[in-house]
Amino acid sequence: MNAPQARWLQTAERWGRWVENALLFFLLSGLILLASTQILLRNVFSMGLPWSDGAVRLMVLWLALAGGIAASRDRKQIAIDVVTRLLPGRIKRVTAVIAHLFTATVTGLLAWHSVRFVYDSYSFGDTLLGDWTAWILQVILPIGFAAISYRYLLQALQELVGSEP
Amino acid sequence: MILTGVLLLLLVLLGAPLFSVIAASAMLGFYRSEIDLSIMAIEFFGLSEMPILVAIPLFTFAGFILSESNSPQRLVRLSNALLGWLPGGLAIISLASCALFTAFTGASGVTIIALGALLYPALGEAGYDERFNLGLITTSGSLGLLFAPSLPLILYGIVAAVSIDDLFLAGILPGLLMLVLLSVYSFWKNRHVRQSLTKASGREVLSALRESIWELPLPVVVLGGIYSGYFAVSEAAAVTALYVIFVEIIILREIPWRELPRIMRESMVLVGAILMILGVSLASTNYMIDSGVPERLFAIVDNYVGGQASFLFALLIFLLILGAILDIFSAIILVVPLILPVAAQYEVHPIHLGIVFLAAMELGYLTPPVGLNLFISSFRFERSIAEVFRATFPFFLLLVVSVVIIAYWPALSLVLLN
Predict the structure, then answer these.
(1) In chain A, where are the structural domains located?
(2) pLDDT digit string (tens) for B329-383?
(3) Residue A138 forms contact with B (CB below 8 Å)
């Protein structure tokens, strides 16, 4: 890759990581605060927020995908690496390219079908948590899978070019 | 059909992430049954319909905070003050404190790094045999798996749809059995190490207690809250996360605020990796159950297995092999939905099955080729995997004995439930 492209990529990577961290930070902090508030309200004031159970569960879904994106970047997705660890350098790179391209394709498909799912939800005007528009709460599915797909595509390219991220 | 199976297996071995292979197999299955593939998104969205799931990110985060603070040091000091006078006491301290720590940090291997690094040199100085120490610490890294609120227990409860409170109760005696067996062995093996490490000192006990004053309520609040029915598991998780932030960051100030985003990211990377597998497995499991995989599995098993006793034997062999190639979280998510109905045919109680499953998978931490503890110890203490495995072997055999006892003595798991 030539220099300006590499610089553009680096900037994108820096911003990407920043967005991931911010998303994880706000989701997890929000989750801790909301879940604790719930307990306090219930036990001390004998009251509850009607939407909070649903909101907590949706935040866990968002955390799952945001964490999944971060795990893909950090190369910490759960995989079995017994065989690949033993392979010699060149073959290892070929197998890594195959595995990454496969994952990019699968998550790309997941992203596409999530788009269709969210679009349906949008056209039917589905709601969640009372009267919240459902598609806004579901939109993390296509975004998450697309980001993971992009990540594995990038890793496949890096493996081909032979540069470290 | 068989060809695609082989192809997918090959991709797993080439290092493709498990979640992507599971997603691919589910999509292929749905495609063949002419079911619209947006079902993948619908099933994955099912993650937001599981109320207890919130316990996983919260407990994981709390465990990461605890292991980054100085609480491992305080835990060791306190156990030492309480048990150090006992000849052979340090080995028992190591086992007990590692078990407690693992229960709270979720058996992700962090125990060996956080506590093992303190205990390993201390054991050496106290005159214990080098090889014994290596084996002891490596084994201790997953010892608390059966104690509440460990992550695998919670995950099993979610996947098997059984009461997590019951699982927490059921794990106590089997967990203690492992602890006692290993303690007795350590005591016997080191009977020549007569000199006790410290004298019994009321003052040291008091001072260690005072130092740990902030962490001491944690097990009491969490476990007491859950077992007394005051908190639900997910609430206990929220209380733990909030309390740990409050103590380690605000009161003791052992972790600066600016470190918080990093720790959050690291802990959520683990959570994300587990939940990605869980999310796509919701789809693949539904597909497999709809197409009658458990029934076919039962038909195959029934050819070879006569009754409950031989089923349990076959199960243990299977889990031993499974644990040697797959990590505990993926194993729970992938295998439990399939063996649960089969086990029910042989009248194995789902709670008992869970304890057997986790106890047997605990062995997987110690078996090559993917035993996590072996790798972490080998890396941390700069020994070859083979050397670590040899040192761990006597402990491993003892754990095998306890797993067999746990499997064939269901009352040990179930007696506390009533």
Answers:
(1) 3-161
(2) 989 999 999 999 999 999 999 999 999 999 999 998 898 877 888 888 888 888 8
(3) yes
Instruction: Give B-chain residues touching A116 at CB under 8 angstroms.
Output: 38, 41
Do the Cβ atoms of B312 and B359 come closer than 8 Å? no
Q: CB A99 to CB B42 under 8 A?
A: no
* Chain A residues closer than 8 Å to B9 by CB: none
Q: Do B329 and A78 touch (CB under 8 A)?
A: yes
| Å between B115 CA and nearest CA of chain A | 23
What is the rounded CA–CA span in Å between residue B324 and residue B338?
A: 19
Task: Copy the structure tokens of residue B320.
Answer: 């031993």
Q: Cα–chain-centroid distance for residue B127?
A: 30
State how far residue B264 is from chain A, nearest Cα, in angstroms. Answer: 6
Do the chains contact at B15 and A79, CB–CB below 8 Å?
yes
Interface contact A141, partner B, CB < 8 A: yes
Q: Where are the alpha helices (DSSP H) in chain A?
A: 3-45, 52-73, 82-86, 89-124, 134-138, 140-161
CA distance B275 to A148: 14
Residue B4 CB neighbours (<10 A): 13
User: Could you give the CA distance from residue B366 to residue B383 in angstroms, rounded to a whole number?
Assistant: 15
- Please give the Cα distance from B90 to B300 (Å, whole number): 49
Q: In this complex, is the C-beta atom of A163 within 8 Å of any C-beta atom belonging to chain B? A: no
Residue B196: both structure tokens together: 């006790």
pLDDT at A3: 64
Query: Above 0.85 for ipTM, yes or no?
Result: yes
CB < 8 Å & 24+ apart, contacts of A17-25: A17/A73, A20/A66, A20/A69, A20/A70, A20/A73, A20/B265, A21/B261, A21/B264, A21/B265, A23/A62, A23/A66, A24/A63, A24/A66, A24/A67, A24/A70, A24/B261, A24/B264, A24/B265, A24/B268, A25/B260, A25/B261, A25/B264, A25/B265
Is residue A93 exposed (0-12), middle (13-18) or buried (19+ Cβ within 10 Å)? middle
Whole-model pTM over 0.80: yes
Residue B323 in tokens? 């644990």
Chains A, B: CB pairs < 8 Å? 196
Distance CA A16, CA A143 (A): 13
